[in-house]
Protein backbone atom coordinates (compact mmCIF):
# COMPACT_ATOMS: atom_id res chain seq x y z
CA UNK A 1 0.00 0.00 0.00
CA UNK A 2 2.62 2.39 1.07
CA UNK A 3 4.77 1.53 -1.92
CA UNK A 4 2.01 2.42 -4.32
CA UNK A 5 1.90 5.98 -3.07
CA UNK A 6 5.59 6.16 -2.47
CA UNK A 7 6.78 5.25 -5.91
CA UNK A 8 5.27 8.22 -7.68
CA UNK A 9 5.18 10.51 -4.73
CA UNK A 10 8.44 10.29 -2.92
CA UNK A 11 10.97 11.77 -5.37
CA UNK A 12 8.89 14.87 -5.94
CA UNK A 13 8.23 15.32 -2.27
CA UNK A 14 11.90 15.33 -1.43
CA UNK A 15 12.60 18.08 -3.91
CA UNK A 16 9.83 20.17 -2.50
CA UNK A 17 10.48 19.70 1.16
CA UNK A 18 14.16 20.41 0.97
CA UNK A 19 13.42 23.83 -0.42
CA UNK A 20 10.46 24.68 1.67
CA UNK A 21 11.05 25.05 5.31
CA UNK A 22 13.26 28.07 5.44
CA UNK A 23 10.31 30.17 4.39
CA UNK A 24 6.85 29.26 5.37
CA UNK A 25 5.51 32.36 3.69
CA UNK A 26 6.06 31.46 0.08
CA UNK A 27 6.37 28.05 -1.34
CA UNK A 28 5.62 25.50 1.24
CA UNK A 29 4.25 25.10 4.65
CA UNK A 30 4.27 22.92 7.68
CA UNK A 31 2.71 19.55 7.10
CA UNK A 32 3.17 18.13 10.50
CA UNK A 33 2.19 15.36 12.83
CA UNK A 34 1.98 15.61 16.60
CA UNK A 35 3.88 13.16 18.73
CA UNK A 36 1.04 13.10 21.24
CA UNK A 37 1.08 10.87 24.30
CA UNK A 38 4.85 10.40 24.20
CA UNK A 39 6.67 12.84 26.48
CA UNK A 40 3.40 14.00 27.99
CA UNK A 41 1.27 11.00 28.94
CA UNK A 42 -2.38 10.77 27.92
CA UNK A 43 -4.02 7.59 29.08
CA UNK A 44 -6.62 7.47 26.32
CA UNK A 45 -3.84 7.40 23.72
CA UNK A 46 -2.18 4.38 25.37
CA UNK A 47 -4.41 2.94 28.10
CA UNK A 48 -2.09 0.02 28.83
CA UNK A 49 0.33 2.39 30.57
CA UNK A 50 -2.06 2.35 33.53
CA UNK A 51 -2.81 -1.38 33.57
CA UNK A 52 -0.51 -2.24 36.46
CA UNK A 53 -1.94 0.23 38.98
CA UNK A 54 -3.75 -1.32 41.95
CA UNK A 55 -7.04 0.43 42.71
CA UNK A 56 -6.62 1.90 39.24
CA UNK A 57 -10.08 3.42 39.35
CA UNK A 58 -8.96 5.64 42.23
CA UNK A 59 -6.29 7.88 40.79
CA UNK A 60 -5.49 11.49 41.59
CA UNK A 61 -8.42 13.61 40.52
CA UNK A 62 -10.95 10.77 40.49
CA UNK A 63 -14.32 12.21 41.54
CA UNK A 64 -16.20 10.24 44.17
CA UNK A 65 -19.43 10.52 46.11
CA UNK A 66 -19.99 8.82 49.46
CA UNK A 67 -23.38 7.52 50.54
CA UNK A 68 -24.32 6.22 53.98
CA UNK A 69 -25.98 2.84 53.50
CA UNK A 70 -28.00 3.25 56.72
CA UNK A 71 -29.17 6.82 56.30
CA UNK A 72 -29.42 6.48 52.54
CA UNK A 73 -27.96 10.00 52.26
CA UNK A 74 -24.86 11.43 50.63
CA UNK A 75 -21.99 13.09 52.45
CA UNK A 76 -22.00 16.80 51.68
CA UNK A 77 -19.55 19.63 52.29
CA UNK A 78 -21.80 22.63 52.87
CA UNK A 79 -21.21 25.40 50.33
CA UNK A 80 -18.57 23.28 48.62
CA UNK A 81 -16.27 23.40 51.65
CA UNK A 82 -15.09 25.73 54.38
CA UNK A 83 -17.30 24.51 57.21
CA UNK A 84 -19.00 21.37 58.40
CA UNK A 85 -19.80 18.10 56.72
CA UNK A 86 -23.25 16.54 56.82
CA UNK A 87 -24.75 13.26 55.65
CA UNK A 88 -28.11 14.57 54.59
CA UNK A 89 -28.39 14.78 50.82
CA UNK A 90 -30.77 12.61 48.83
CA UNK A 91 -29.12 13.56 45.58
CA UNK A 92 -25.46 14.10 44.91
CA UNK A 93 -24.13 17.09 43.03
CA UNK A 94 -21.07 19.33 43.31
CA UNK A 95 -21.00 19.74 47.12
CA UNK A 96 -21.26 15.97 47.40
CA UNK A 97 -18.43 15.30 44.97
CA UNK A 98 -14.86 14.92 46.26
CA UNK A 99 -11.67 14.71 44.23
CA UNK A 100 -9.12 12.17 45.39
CA UNK A 101 -5.53 12.93 46.13
CA UNK A 102 -3.81 9.61 46.20
CA UNK A 103 -1.19 9.04 48.91
CA UNK A 104 -0.80 5.29 48.42
CA UNK A 105 -2.91 2.56 46.90
CA UNK A 106 -5.19 2.61 49.98
CA UNK A 107 -4.65 6.09 51.40
CA UNK A 108 -6.38 9.13 50.04
CA UNK A 109 -7.21 12.72 50.77
CA UNK A 110 -10.59 14.07 49.77
CA UNK A 111 -10.83 17.51 48.23
CA UNK A 112 -14.03 19.52 48.15
CA UNK A 113 -15.34 21.65 45.33
CA UNK A 114 -13.92 24.80 46.90
CA UNK A 115 -10.44 23.30 47.32
CA UNK A 116 -10.51 22.44 51.04
CA UNK A 117 -9.78 18.92 52.25
CA UNK A 118 -11.82 16.81 54.60
CA UNK A 119 -10.10 16.74 57.97
CA UNK A 120 -10.39 14.80 61.20
CA UNK A 121 -8.75 17.65 63.08
CA UNK A 122 -11.54 18.96 65.26
CA UNK A 123 -12.34 19.13 68.98
CA UNK A 124 -15.26 16.74 69.02
CA UNK A 125 -14.19 14.18 66.43
CA UNK A 126 -16.33 15.74 63.70
CA UNK A 127 -15.13 15.50 60.14
CA UNK A 128 -14.94 19.01 58.72
CA UNK A 129 -14.27 20.44 55.28
CA UNK A 130 -11.82 23.08 56.41
CA UNK A 131 -8.21 21.98 55.78
CA UNK A 132 -6.20 24.03 53.29
CA UNK A 133 -3.24 21.64 53.16
CA UNK A 134 -3.64 17.88 53.32
CA UNK A 135 -1.46 16.26 55.99
CA UNK A 136 -1.84 13.08 58.05
CA UNK A 137 -5.04 14.25 59.77
CA UNK A 138 -6.52 14.69 56.29
CA UNK A 139 -5.45 11.25 55.09
CA UNK A 140 -7.88 8.33 55.16
CA UNK A 141 -7.45 4.62 54.56
CA UNK A 142 -10.20 3.47 52.29
CA UNK A 143 -11.03 -0.22 52.66
CA UNK A 144 -13.10 -1.52 49.76
CA UNK A 145 -15.51 -4.39 49.51
CA UNK A 146 -17.32 -4.32 46.19
CA UNK A 147 -18.99 -0.95 46.01
CA UNK A 148 -18.83 -0.51 49.80
CA UNK A 149 -16.09 1.19 51.80
CA UNK A 150 -14.90 1.80 55.31
CA UNK A 151 -13.04 5.04 55.86
CA UNK A 152 -10.40 4.86 58.55
CA UNK A 153 -8.14 7.48 60.08
CA UNK A 154 -4.41 6.88 60.31
CA UNK A 155 -4.85 6.69 64.12
CA UNK A 156 -7.19 3.72 63.72
CA UNK A 157 -10.61 5.30 64.20
CA UNK A 158 -13.32 4.64 61.64
CA UNK A 159 -15.44 7.39 60.19
CA UNK A 160 -19.15 6.93 60.68
CA UNK A 161 -22.37 8.77 60.11
CA UNK A 162 -24.41 9.78 63.14
CA UNK A 163 -28.16 9.60 63.55
CA UNK A 164 -28.27 13.39 63.40
CA UNK A 165 -26.56 13.36 59.99
CA UNK A 166 -23.04 14.39 60.87
CA UNK A 167 -19.78 12.60 60.14
CA UNK A 168 -17.56 11.68 63.09
CA UNK A 169 -14.48 9.58 63.67
CA UNK A 170 -14.84 7.95 67.07
CA UNK A 171 -15.61 4.41 65.99
CA UNK A 172 -12.55 2.34 66.93
CA UNK A 173 -13.75 -1.18 66.05
CA UNK A 174 -13.54 -2.91 62.72
CA UNK A 175 -17.06 -2.52 61.36
CA UNK A 176 -18.74 -5.28 59.40
CA UNK A 177 -19.88 -4.96 55.79
CA UNK A 178 -23.56 -5.12 56.75
CA UNK A 179 -25.70 -2.01 56.89
CA UNK A 180 -24.09 -0.02 59.69
CA UNK A 181 -23.20 3.62 60.24
CA UNK A 182 -19.52 3.10 59.37
CA UNK A 183 -20.25 1.50 56.01
CA UNK A 184 -20.65 3.68 52.95
CA UNK A 185 -21.19 3.21 49.29
CA UNK A 186 -18.44 4.74 47.17
CA UNK A 187 -19.70 6.05 43.83
CA UNK A 188 -16.99 6.81 41.29
CA UNK A 189 -18.44 9.64 39.24
CA UNK A 190 -15.50 10.41 36.98
CA UNK A 191 -12.09 8.89 36.55
CA UNK A 192 -11.01 10.82 33.54
CA UNK A 193 -7.53 12.08 34.42
CA UNK A 194 -4.78 9.78 33.23
CA UNK A 195 -1.74 11.95 32.83
CA UNK A 196 1.85 12.07 34.03
CA UNK A 197 0.77 13.01 37.53
CA UNK A 198 -1.62 10.09 37.90
CA UNK A 199 0.75 7.59 36.34
CA UNK A 200 3.80 8.48 38.39
CA UNK A 201 2.03 9.10 41.68
CA UNK A 202 0.03 5.89 41.46
CA UNK A 203 2.85 3.53 40.57
CA UNK A 204 5.37 5.20 42.85
CA UNK A 205 8.84 6.23 41.74
CA UNK A 206 10.53 2.89 41.01
CA UNK A 207 7.71 1.30 39.05
CA UNK A 208 6.76 4.53 37.28
CA UNK A 209 10.36 4.93 36.16
CA UNK A 210 10.33 1.47 34.59
CA UNK A 211 6.98 2.07 32.88
CA UNK A 212 7.94 5.47 31.52
CA UNK A 213 11.44 4.46 30.43
CA UNK A 214 9.97 1.63 28.39
CA UNK A 215 7.25 3.88 26.96
CA UNK A 216 9.62 6.68 25.97
CA UNK A 217 12.03 4.19 24.43
CA UNK A 218 9.46 2.30 22.38
CA UNK A 219 6.40 4.44 21.63
CA UNK A 220 8.16 6.70 19.14
CA UNK A 221 11.34 5.61 17.42
CA UNK A 222 13.58 6.58 14.53
CA UNK A 223 11.52 4.39 12.23
CA UNK A 224 8.50 6.63 12.84
CA UNK A 225 10.52 9.60 11.65
CA UNK A 226 11.48 7.55 8.63
CA UNK A 227 7.81 6.75 7.98
CA UNK A 228 6.81 10.40 8.29
CA UNK A 229 9.53 11.66 6.00
CA UNK A 230 8.51 9.09 3.39
CA UNK A 231 4.89 10.15 3.54
CA UNK A 232 5.21 13.84 2.89
CA UNK A 233 5.38 15.05 6.47
CA UNK A 234 7.98 17.74 7.07
CA UNK A 235 7.52 18.62 10.75
CA UNK A 236 6.81 17.03 14.11
CA UNK A 237 5.13 18.94 16.92
CA UNK A 238 6.38 17.51 20.18
CA UNK A 239 4.41 18.08 23.39
CA UNK A 240 6.62 18.39 26.48
CA UNK A 241 5.95 18.98 30.17
CA UNK A 242 7.50 21.67 32.34
CA UNK A 243 9.41 19.10 34.39
CA UNK A 244 11.67 18.45 31.38
CA UNK A 245 13.86 21.33 32.57
CA UNK A 246 14.76 19.49 35.75
CA UNK A 247 15.89 16.28 34.16
CA UNK A 248 17.01 13.78 35.30
CA UNK A 249 15.46 14.47 38.72
CA UNK A 250 12.29 16.53 38.36
CA UNK A 251 10.14 17.24 41.42
CA UNK A 252 8.00 14.38 42.69
CA UNK A 253 6.10 12.60 41.31
CA UNK A 254 7.40 13.37 37.81
CA UNK A 255 9.92 11.02 36.26
CA UNK A 256 13.08 12.14 34.46
CA UNK A 257 14.10 11.03 31.00
CA UNK A 258 11.96 13.17 28.74
CA UNK A 259 14.87 15.50 27.98
CA UNK A 260 17.03 12.68 26.64
CA UNK A 261 14.08 11.56 24.52
CA UNK A 262 13.62 15.07 23.13
CA UNK A 263 17.33 15.20 22.26
CA UNK A 264 16.87 11.93 20.38
CA UNK A 265 13.87 13.31 18.53
CA UNK A 266 15.99 16.25 17.35
CA UNK A 267 18.69 13.94 16.09
CA UNK A 268 16.20 11.72 14.27
CA UNK A 269 14.61 14.82 12.80
CA UNK A 270 17.99 15.88 11.49
CA UNK A 271 18.65 12.44 10.02
CA UNK A 272 15.30 12.26 8.25
CA UNK A 273 15.02 15.89 7.20
CA UNK A 274 12.16 16.86 9.49
CA UNK A 275 11.73 20.00 11.58
CA UNK A 276 10.68 20.13 15.21
CA UNK A 277 8.21 22.31 17.01
CA UNK A 278 8.57 22.07 20.78
CA UNK A 279 5.18 22.52 22.33
CA UNK A 280 4.93 23.31 26.05
CA UNK A 281 1.89 21.15 26.63
CA UNK A 282 1.95 21.04 30.43
CA UNK A 283 2.83 24.17 32.38
CA UNK A 284 3.40 24.21 36.14
CA UNK A 285 0.06 24.42 37.94
CA UNK A 286 -1.78 23.30 34.78
CA UNK A 287 -3.20 25.80 32.30
CA UNK A 288 -6.40 23.87 31.53
CA UNK A 289 -7.02 21.26 34.22
CA UNK A 290 -6.75 18.35 31.82
CA UNK A 291 -4.58 15.27 31.97
CA UNK A 292 -2.49 16.53 29.07
CA UNK A 293 -1.42 19.52 31.13
CA UNK A 294 -0.51 17.14 33.98
CA UNK A 295 -3.16 18.48 36.31
CA UNK A 296 -3.36 16.56 39.58
CA UNK A 297 -7.07 16.89 40.15
CA UNK A 298 -8.54 19.07 37.42
CA UNK A 299 -7.57 22.37 39.02
CA UNK A 300 -6.14 25.17 36.87
CA UNK A 301 -3.56 26.98 38.99
CA UNK A 302 -1.32 28.26 36.19
CA UNK A 303 -2.15 31.94 36.02
CA UNK A 304 -0.33 32.83 39.22
CA UNK A 305 2.79 35.04 39.09
CA UNK A 306 4.99 32.24 40.51
CA UNK A 307 3.87 29.69 37.96
CA UNK A 308 4.16 32.18 35.12
CA UNK A 309 7.75 33.06 35.96
CA UNK A 310 8.55 29.39 36.36
CA UNK A 311 7.04 28.81 32.91
CA UNK A 312 9.16 31.57 31.40
CA UNK A 313 12.19 29.79 32.83
CA UNK A 314 11.03 26.65 31.02
CA UNK A 315 10.89 28.60 27.75
CA UNK A 316 14.34 30.03 28.45
CA UNK A 317 15.66 26.52 29.09
CA UNK A 318 14.18 25.15 25.85
CA UNK A 319 15.28 28.13 23.77
CA UNK A 320 18.80 27.97 25.20
CA UNK A 321 19.14 24.27 24.53
CA UNK A 322 17.53 24.05 21.10
CA UNK A 323 17.55 27.63 19.78
CA UNK A 324 20.57 26.99 17.60
CA UNK A 325 19.63 23.47 16.52
CA UNK A 326 19.24 23.19 12.75
CA UNK A 327 16.08 21.13 13.17
CA UNK A 328 14.25 23.60 15.39
CA UNK A 329 11.36 25.22 13.57
CA UNK A 330 9.56 26.84 16.47
CA UNK A 331 8.64 26.90 20.11
CA UNK A 332 5.01 26.93 21.18
CA UNK A 333 4.81 28.86 24.42
CA UNK A 334 1.76 27.14 25.95
CA UNK A 335 -0.75 24.60 24.69
CA UNK A 336 -4.48 25.24 25.07
CA UNK A 337 -4.79 27.65 27.98
CA UNK A 338 -8.33 27.62 29.29
CA UNK A 339 -10.43 30.67 28.47
CA UNK A 340 -12.48 30.11 31.61
CA UNK A 341 -9.52 30.44 33.94
CA UNK A 342 -6.70 32.20 32.09
CA UNK A 343 -7.52 35.89 31.48
CA UNK A 344 -6.51 37.23 28.08
CA UNK A 345 -4.36 40.06 29.44
CA UNK A 346 -2.39 37.65 31.62
CA UNK A 347 -1.87 35.35 28.66
CA UNK A 348 -0.86 38.13 26.29
CA UNK A 349 1.67 39.46 28.79
CA UNK A 350 3.10 35.94 29.16
CA UNK A 351 3.25 35.51 25.38
CA UNK A 352 5.05 38.83 24.96
CA UNK A 353 7.68 37.90 27.50
CA UNK A 354 8.00 34.40 26.07
CA UNK A 355 8.50 35.86 22.61
CA UNK A 356 11.38 38.02 23.87
CA UNK A 357 13.02 35.05 25.52
CA UNK A 358 12.88 32.93 22.38
CA UNK A 359 14.18 35.84 20.29
CA UNK A 360 17.09 36.21 22.68
CA UNK A 361 18.23 32.75 21.61
CA UNK A 362 17.12 32.62 18.02
CA UNK A 363 16.36 35.34 15.52
CA UNK A 364 14.41 32.97 13.29
CA UNK A 365 12.63 30.34 15.38
CA UNK A 366 8.88 30.68 15.04
CA UNK A 367 7.17 31.67 18.24
CA UNK A 368 3.83 29.91 18.37
CA UNK A 369 0.92 31.18 20.43
CA UNK A 370 -1.95 28.80 21.03
CA UNK A 371 -5.51 30.06 21.09
CA UNK A 372 -7.40 29.76 24.36
CA UNK A 373 -9.77 26.83 24.46
CA UNK A 374 -13.35 27.26 25.53
CA UNK A 375 -15.25 30.45 24.95
CA UNK A 376 -12.70 32.60 23.14
CA UNK A 377 -12.44 34.00 19.63
CA UNK A 378 -9.03 33.34 18.05
CA UNK A 379 -9.06 36.87 16.65
CA UNK A 380 -8.04 38.02 20.14
CA UNK A 381 -4.48 36.84 19.57
CA UNK A 382 -4.24 38.27 16.07
CA UNK A 383 -5.05 41.71 17.41
CA UNK A 384 -2.86 41.55 20.49
CA UNK A 385 0.31 42.79 18.81
CA UNK A 386 2.55 40.07 20.21
CA UNK A 387 6.07 39.90 18.79
CA UNK A 388 7.63 41.32 15.67
CA UNK A 389 8.74 38.53 13.38
CA UNK A 390 7.92 34.87 12.80
CA UNK A 391 4.90 34.86 15.08
CA UNK A 392 2.31 32.13 14.61
CA UNK A 393 -1.12 31.60 16.12
CA UNK A 394 -2.14 27.98 16.61
CA UNK A 395 -5.81 26.99 16.22
CA UNK A 396 -7.08 23.52 17.06
CA UNK A 397 -9.83 22.35 14.76
CA UNK A 398 -11.83 19.34 15.91
CA UNK A 399 -15.35 18.40 14.82
CA UNK A 400 -15.62 16.91 18.29
CA UNK A 401 -15.88 17.83 21.96
CA UNK A 402 -19.00 19.90 21.47
CA UNK A 403 -22.64 18.76 21.43
CA UNK A 404 -22.95 20.82 18.26
CA UNK A 405 -21.23 18.06 16.31
CA UNK A 406 -22.96 15.13 17.94
CA UNK A 407 -25.92 14.93 15.59
CA UNK A 408 -24.13 15.80 12.36
CA UNK A 409 -23.87 13.23 9.59
CA UNK A 410 -20.82 12.90 7.40
CA UNK A 411 -22.02 15.39 4.79
CA UNK A 412 -22.71 18.01 7.40
CA UNK A 413 -19.28 17.51 8.90
CA UNK A 414 -17.65 18.05 5.54
CA UNK A 415 -19.81 21.12 4.94
CA UNK A 416 -18.76 22.51 8.29
CA UNK A 417 -15.14 22.43 7.14
CA UNK A 418 -15.98 24.44 4.00
CA UNK A 419 -18.64 26.73 5.41
CA UNK A 420 -17.27 27.54 8.85
CA UNK A 421 -13.58 26.65 9.01
CA UNK A 422 -12.60 27.96 5.59
CA UNK A 423 -14.21 31.40 6.03
CA UNK A 424 -12.74 31.72 9.50
CA UNK A 425 -9.30 31.06 8.08
CA UNK A 426 -9.93 33.61 5.33
CA UNK A 427 -11.07 36.21 7.84
CA UNK A 428 -8.04 35.65 10.06
CA UNK A 429 -5.75 35.89 7.06
CA UNK A 430 -7.41 39.20 6.29
CA UNK A 431 -6.26 40.61 9.62
CA UNK A 432 -2.74 40.50 8.27
CA UNK A 433 -1.33 39.54 11.63
CA UNK A 434 0.59 36.44 12.72
CA UNK A 435 0.80 33.34 10.56
CA UNK A 436 -1.92 30.73 11.04
CA UNK A 437 -1.26 27.19 12.12
CA UNK A 438 -3.84 24.43 12.49
CA UNK A 439 -1.64 22.78 15.08
CA UNK A 440 -4.16 20.03 15.88
CA UNK A 441 -6.81 18.31 13.80
CA UNK A 442 -7.83 14.72 13.29
CA UNK A 443 -9.61 12.53 10.77
CA UNK A 444 -12.21 11.57 13.36
CA UNK A 445 -15.67 12.83 14.19
CA UNK A 446 -18.85 11.93 16.05
CA UNK A 447 -20.33 10.09 13.05
CA UNK A 448 -20.97 6.45 13.94
CA UNK A 449 -19.87 3.63 11.67
CA UNK A 450 -18.80 5.85 8.81
CA UNK A 451 -17.40 4.13 5.74
CA UNK A 452 -13.82 4.38 4.61
CA UNK A 453 -14.99 6.56 1.75
CA UNK A 454 -16.74 8.98 4.13
CA UNK A 455 -13.55 9.24 6.16
CA UNK A 456 -11.59 9.89 2.98
CA UNK A 457 -13.88 12.76 2.06
CA UNK A 458 -13.68 14.25 5.53
CA UNK A 459 -9.90 14.00 5.53
CA UNK A 460 -9.72 15.47 2.04
CA UNK A 461 -11.91 18.41 3.03
CA UNK A 462 -9.71 19.15 5.99
CA UNK A 463 -6.51 18.86 3.99
CA UNK A 464 -7.96 21.17 1.34
CA UNK A 465 -9.07 23.83 3.75
CA UNK A 466 -6.17 23.66 6.18
CA UNK A 467 -3.73 23.93 3.29
CA UNK A 468 -4.87 27.53 3.33
CA UNK A 469 -3.44 28.14 6.80
CA UNK A 470 -0.45 30.40 6.22
CA UNK A 471 1.92 28.46 8.47
CA UNK A 472 0.47 25.01 7.83
CA UNK A 473 -1.00 22.26 9.95
CA UNK A 474 -0.17 19.29 12.09
CA UNK A 475 -2.26 16.18 12.59
CA UNK A 476 -3.17 14.89 16.06
CA UNK A 477 -1.64 12.36 16.51
CA UNK A 478 1.03 9.97 15.21
CA UNK A 479 0.02 6.94 17.26
CA UNK A 480 -3.14 6.20 19.13
CA UNK A 481 -4.87 3.20 20.62
CA UNK A 482 -8.01 4.52 18.90
CA UNK A 483 -7.17 3.72 15.33
CA UNK A 484 -9.08 6.54 13.67
CA UNK A 485 -6.90 9.03 15.51
CA UNK A 486 -3.71 7.25 14.55
CA UNK A 487 -1.92 8.93 11.65
CA UNK A 488 0.03 5.85 10.64
CA UNK A 489 -3.13 3.73 10.68
CA UNK A 490 -4.95 6.33 8.57
CA UNK A 491 -2.20 6.36 5.98
CA UNK A 492 -1.66 2.61 5.88
CA UNK A 493 -5.39 1.89 5.65
CA UNK A 494 -6.05 4.74 3.20
CA UNK A 495 -8.53 6.49 5.46
CA UNK A 496 -6.56 9.68 5.06
CA UNK A 497 -5.51 10.18 1.46
CA UNK A 498 -2.63 12.44 2.12
CA UNK A 499 -0.69 13.81 -0.76
CA UNK A 500 -1.23 16.87 -2.78
CA UNK A 501 -1.33 14.81 -5.92
CA UNK A 502 -3.99 12.63 -4.56
CA UNK A 503 -7.66 13.33 -4.93
CA UNK A 504 -10.85 11.36 -4.67
CA UNK A 505 -13.58 11.82 -7.19
CA UNK A 506 -17.00 10.34 -6.86
CA UNK A 507 -17.52 9.65 -10.54
CA UNK A 508 -13.93 9.07 -11.60
CA UNK A 509 -14.51 11.19 -14.69
CA UNK A 510 -11.30 13.16 -14.41
CA UNK A 511 -9.18 12.47 -17.47
CA UNK A 512 -6.20 10.53 -16.32
CA UNK A 513 -2.80 11.68 -17.59
CA UNK A 514 -0.42 9.02 -18.74
CA UNK A 515 1.48 9.03 -15.49
CA UNK A 516 -1.60 8.62 -13.39
CA UNK A 517 -2.16 5.55 -11.33
CA UNK A 518 -5.68 4.41 -10.74
CA UNK A 519 -7.05 2.23 -8.03
CA UNK A 520 -10.43 1.33 -6.70
CA UNK A 521 -11.24 2.20 -3.16
CA UNK A 522 -12.45 -0.85 -1.29
CA UNK A 523 -16.07 0.24 -1.15
CA UNK A 524 -16.12 0.83 -4.91
CA UNK A 525 -17.79 4.18 -4.59
CA UNK A 526 -14.75 6.07 -5.61
CA UNK A 527 -11.84 5.96 -7.91
CA UNK A 528 -8.68 7.20 -6.34
CA UNK A 529 -6.52 9.15 -8.67
CA UNK A 530 -2.92 10.19 -8.28
CA UNK A 531 -2.02 13.06 -10.54
CA UNK A 532 1.43 14.51 -10.30
CA UNK A 533 1.94 18.18 -10.86
CA UNK A 534 -0.74 20.76 -11.36
CA UNK A 535 -4.16 19.59 -10.51
CA UNK A 536 -7.52 20.95 -11.44
CA UNK A 537 -9.91 20.44 -8.68
CA UNK A 538 -13.67 20.98 -8.44
CA UNK A 539 -13.06 23.80 -6.01
CA UNK A 540 -9.72 25.10 -7.16
CA UNK A 541 -6.21 23.94 -7.84
CA UNK A 542 -2.82 23.66 -6.29
CA UNK A 543 -0.23 26.17 -7.34
CA UNK A 544 2.66 24.42 -9.06
CA UNK A 545 5.49 23.34 -6.81
CA UNK A 546 3.75 24.41 -3.67
CA UNK A 547 1.17 23.09 -1.31
CA UNK A 548 -0.84 26.26 -1.63
CA UNK A 549 -4.38 25.57 -2.68
CA UNK A 550 -5.99 28.22 -4.83
CA UNK A 551 -9.75 28.02 -4.47
CA UNK A 552 -11.80 28.66 -7.54
CA UNK A 553 -14.21 31.59 -7.20
CA UNK A 554 -17.15 29.27 -6.77
CA UNK A 555 -15.45 27.67 -3.80
CA UNK A 556 -15.03 31.02 -2.08
CA UNK A 557 -18.52 32.32 -2.07
CA UNK A 558 -19.09 31.68 1.57
CA UNK A 559 -18.98 34.62 3.90
CA UNK A 560 -16.81 34.63 6.98
CA UNK A 561 -18.91 33.98 10.04
CA UNK A 562 -16.65 34.79 12.95
C1 LIG B 1 -23.44 23.19 59.06
O1 LIG B 1 -23.29 24.36 58.31
C2 LIG B 1 -24.51 24.88 57.84
C3 LIG B 1 -24.20 26.04 56.92
O2 LIG B 1 -23.15 26.79 57.44
C4 LIG B 1 -25.40 25.27 59.03
O3 LIG B 1 -26.62 25.72 58.56
C5 LIG B 1 -25.59 24.05 59.91
O4 LIG B 1 -26.29 24.42 61.08
C6 LIG B 1 -24.29 23.43 60.30
N1 LIG B 1 -24.55 22.18 60.97
C7 LIG B 1 -23.87 21.83 62.04
C8 LIG B 1 -24.27 20.53 62.64
O5 LIG B 1 -22.98 22.51 62.53
C1 LIG C 1 17.88 38.80 26.69
O1 LIG C 1 19.29 38.72 26.85
C2 LIG C 1 19.85 39.82 27.49
C3 LIG C 1 21.36 39.66 27.43
O2 LIG C 1 21.73 38.39 27.90
C4 LIG C 1 19.31 39.92 28.90
O3 LIG C 1 19.82 41.05 29.55
C5 LIG C 1 17.80 40.05 28.83
O4 LIG C 1 17.25 40.01 30.14
C6 LIG C 1 17.22 38.91 28.04
N1 LIG C 1 15.80 39.13 27.85
C7 LIG C 1 14.92 38.22 28.14
C8 LIG C 1 13.50 38.58 27.91
O5 LIG C 1 15.22 37.12 28.54
C1 LIG D 1 -27.28 14.51 6.25
O1 LIG D 1 -28.31 15.32 6.80
C2 LIG D 1 -28.87 16.21 5.88
C3 LIG D 1 -29.80 17.14 6.65
O2 LIG D 1 -30.67 16.39 7.46
C4 LIG D 1 -29.56 15.43 4.78
O3 LIG D 1 -30.14 16.31 3.84
C5 LIG D 1 -28.54 14.54 4.10
O4 LIG D 1 -29.18 13.70 3.17
C6 LIG D 1 -27.82 13.67 5.12
N1 LIG D 1 -26.74 13.00 4.43
C7 LIG D 1 -26.38 11.77 4.69
C8 LIG D 1 -25.22 11.23 3.93
O5 LIG D 1 -27.00 11.08 5.48
C1 LIG E 1 -22.51 0.89 14.63
O1 LIG E 1 -22.10 -0.46 14.54
C2 LIG E 1 -22.25 -1.19 15.72
C3 LIG E 1 -21.64 -2.54 15.55
O2 LIG E 1 -21.91 -3.06 14.27
C4 LIG E 1 -23.72 -1.23 16.10
O3 LIG E 1 -23.91 -1.94 17.30
C5 LIG E 1 -24.25 0.18 16.25
O4 LIG E 1 -25.65 0.16 16.49
C6 LIG E 1 -23.97 1.02 15.02
N1 LIG E 1 -24.31 2.39 15.29
C7 LIG E 1 -25.05 3.14 14.45
C8 LIG E 1 -25.35 4.52 14.88
O5 LIG E 1 -25.39 2.72 13.38
Automatic annotation (TrEMBL):
InterPro entries: Actin-crosslinking, DUF7910, Fascin, GH, Glyco_hydro_5, Glyco_hydro_5_CS. Residues 1-26 form the signal peptide. One of its GO terms (molecular function) is actin filament binding. It comes from the Eukaryota. Residues 220-481 form the Glycoside hydrolase family domain. Gene3D superfamilies: 2.80.10.50, Glycosidases. Pfam families: Cellulase, DUF7910. This is Mannan endo-1,4-beta-mannosidase. It comes from Paspalum notatum var. saurae.
Amino acid sequence: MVGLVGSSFLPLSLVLFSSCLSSVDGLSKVRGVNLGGWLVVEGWIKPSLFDGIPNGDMLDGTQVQIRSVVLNKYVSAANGGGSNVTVDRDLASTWETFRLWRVSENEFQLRCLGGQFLTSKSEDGLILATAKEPLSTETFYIERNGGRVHIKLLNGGYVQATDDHLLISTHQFQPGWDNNLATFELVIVANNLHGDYQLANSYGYEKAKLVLEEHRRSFITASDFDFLSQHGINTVRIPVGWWITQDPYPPSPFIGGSLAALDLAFSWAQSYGLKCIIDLHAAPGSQNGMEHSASRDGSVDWPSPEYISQTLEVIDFLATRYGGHPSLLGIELLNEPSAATVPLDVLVSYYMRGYQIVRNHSSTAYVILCQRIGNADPIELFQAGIGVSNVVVDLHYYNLFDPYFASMNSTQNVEFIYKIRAPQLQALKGVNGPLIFIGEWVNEWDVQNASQYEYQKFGRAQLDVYADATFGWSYWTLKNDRMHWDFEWNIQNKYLLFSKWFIVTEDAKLPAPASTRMGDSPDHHAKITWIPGRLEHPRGHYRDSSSEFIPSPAGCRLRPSL
